[in-house]
Amino acid sequence: MFTALFDRLGNWNPQLLRELKGRLRPRNLMAAIAVSAIAQLILLSVFGTQLPPSFNPHEHLRLTTVPEIDFTFGTSTLPNYPPNLRVESVNNDVGQLYQSTRVISTAEQPKPGDRIWQIDGQTIDTFNDSFANVVDALRGYPGNQSLVNNPLLEQDVTLLVERPGVGQLTLSLPRVAVSDIYSQYCATSPEITPSPYDQGYYGNSRCQLNPEQTEFEIDWPAWYQDVFRGASLMLVIGLLTAGSFVLIQNLDREQRRGTLTFIRLSPRSSFNILSGQILGAPVAIYIAAALMLPLHVLSAVGAEISLVDLGAFYLVLGLSGFLFFSLSLLVGLIGKGLGGLQAWLVAGGFFLFQLVIGMAVSNGDFGSPFTLHWLILFSPASVLHYLLGFEAATSSSQTFEFAAYRLTLLSFVTLFCVNSLVWSLWLWHALKRKFVNPQVPLIERRYSYLMTACFEVFLLGFAASSNSFQEDVVLVAFLNLLFLGLLIAALQPSRQALEDWARFRLAERRSQRQALLKDLVQGENSPAILAIGLNIAIALGLMVIWTLQRNMASSTHELLGYIALGSLILIYASINQVWFLTQVNRPEIWSMGTLLVVMVAPLFARLLLEEVAALASVQFLEAVAVPWLMTPIGQSYGWAILSQWLLLIVVNLVTLRQLQKAGESGSKNLLARPKSALAEKSS
């Protein structure tokens, strides 16, 4: 039976069968089982120790009065001066009473400021100026006796107090036995309001006894909810981090051994091969995660989370896994020179990202709607915001919103799925291209325009829900700078492709040439300046619409800043193009280093010139080099944009000269060969 199953699996996806044969070994299976079991034991042990202990009347009960009195006790060095005992505060909420008592009226209760003269007929000076003796007399002290049905519970404590403006009063307060154990998982009574001072080692809730007064009442749904929270974070962080690490490490091993080249020659499609990698390489991680599912499901049931909501969590977890594993494969294909360190860096980045987002969302601390709320669509732990009840229990400032609309669980899961599928499609577009031919650009130019529009829709959708426009406009501009900077690298052809394009275009007849404009917009080997310019225009156009919608009154400043930002990104693209046409080794390294200097140096200069930021010359430099900060005035932006365009013209003239030189030298070589061959033949 297993032979037929493996044959069928091999016919469907040979790469998956190959990975399973290499990974499903006893050692790997035992390690997966051990890791999953240890993680679950640690989780249960951590939360198990926070439960209240088994009830023991000798250890967990103490005598006090109703109400409970907090007092100040002081003595004097003067002779014949009695100790001073005054009521500092009165606490009527003493927690669960072990034995029912009579209810006294407000007039019978002590008040802050009352001076206590006698306790059960004994004056204060008979207690030998001892604080402990006063506590024993006031609250009762049973010694080693059990407080269950203790005679002291039937006796009242009689106080002779002196009340300012009233005189001396005699008060009788009942004694009761109360629990002195605290835990965040103890059940609370709706009739009792917790005191600010009512806290202990285990938590902030004083434990109550059950009706039979034999055990502490535990809020099991709250405990299961925290276990579910911990198990969910373990699943999210462990699955995405460990799975990404294994995929990148496996791909690096294939490249070092040279087997990746043979895999590329397979008649199978790139999707079939790469999906086999995703399904097969982390199979031990999948087994460990599957072994945690029973605890996860049981804790969800105990936390009163519906199976439909739980299914939503598993749906977004699966889509996130596909997205992050696809990104890991892409990083593994394009990453060079880092070796095994690359897997650790990527997995470490994923770990920190999922940990920060997961902890913030699962604790209800993600804050009010903000542009960076887009990050929640890349962490499946964000569904815990709804599953743990934060959406219903918190104020409107703790909601998730998109395009100024509050997201319900259904709309959030829908938006999450759309976001994951959209970016997974773009990743697989790049994966297929790089797997078949590592020399081609990551993204086809005709699709890059749609990808830019997708980026802007998601980014500005969350920015539209924020109430901090001035901060958002800087953040949106900066994120666009990062995205379009990555797009420059994704669309850049190799130096050999640029030289071939210039050579054969010059050698071809005009009638056979493709239209230059179409070639620059959709071609694969032509310079990418125009394509990047169109992507910048799409991004800036959508940003302008968002700005006008948010800030119709005064938007001239932001619009000039956007133009300066677009011009600066075009300068970056032109500098990158110059390096790829220069005869140097590893032009991408030179280009990256130059762009980093150009981006970072102005920021350091701005920090150094902070004290003279109001000068016109400094504002001009900021408008030229860091327009995404949106700080210069309109006049500075005008001169800065003019300067940027002049610099852009100069850099592109250099690029044009390089292309002409490459095309002419190549054409001369092509035309010189036939002439030399004819001369040799005639001789």
Report what the structure shows.
There is one protein chain. Among the domains are: 57-217, Pdz3 Domain, CATH 2.30.42.10; 475-601 and 613-667, no CATH class. A hairpin with a 2-residue loop joins β8 (401-402) and β9. The protein is elongated. The chain has a 5-stranded antiparallel sheet with strand order 1-7-6-4-5. Helices cover 60% and strands 8% of the residues. It has helices at residues 2-12, 14-23, 26-48, 57-60, 131-139, 220-257, 259-264, 270-280, 283-302, 307-334, 341-362, 384-387, 390-393, 409-436, 445-463, 469-491, 495-507, 516-522, 529-550, 556-580, 587-608, 616-625, 634-682; strands at residues 61-65, 68-74, 84-91, 115-119, 122-123, 156-163, 167-179, 401-402, 405-406. The chain has 683 residues and is of the alpha+beta class. α2 (14-23) packs parallel to α8 and α16 (469-491) packs parallel to α20. It comes from Almyronema epifaneia S1.
Tally of helical runs: 23
Distance between the termini: 76 Å
Reported for the largest beta sheet, the result is: 5 strands, antiparallel
Roughly how many Å is the radius of gyration?
Answer: 37 Å
Secondary structure category = alpha+beta
Oligomerization status of the protein chains: single chain
Shape annotation = elongated
Low-confidence stretches: 191-203
Q: How helical, in percent, are the residues?
A: 55-70%
Q: What's the rounded overall pLDDT mean? A: 82
How much of the sequence is in beta strands? 5-15%
Give the total of beta strands: 9
For the largest sheet, list the strands in their spatial order.
Answer: 1-7-6-4-5
Organism: Almyronema epifaneia S1
Transmembrane segments: 28-47, 227-248, 269-292, 312-334, 341-360, 372-390, 402-427, 447-466, 473-491, 528-548, 560-582, 636-656
Protein name: ABC transporter permease
Keywords: Membrane, Transmembrane, Transmembrane helix
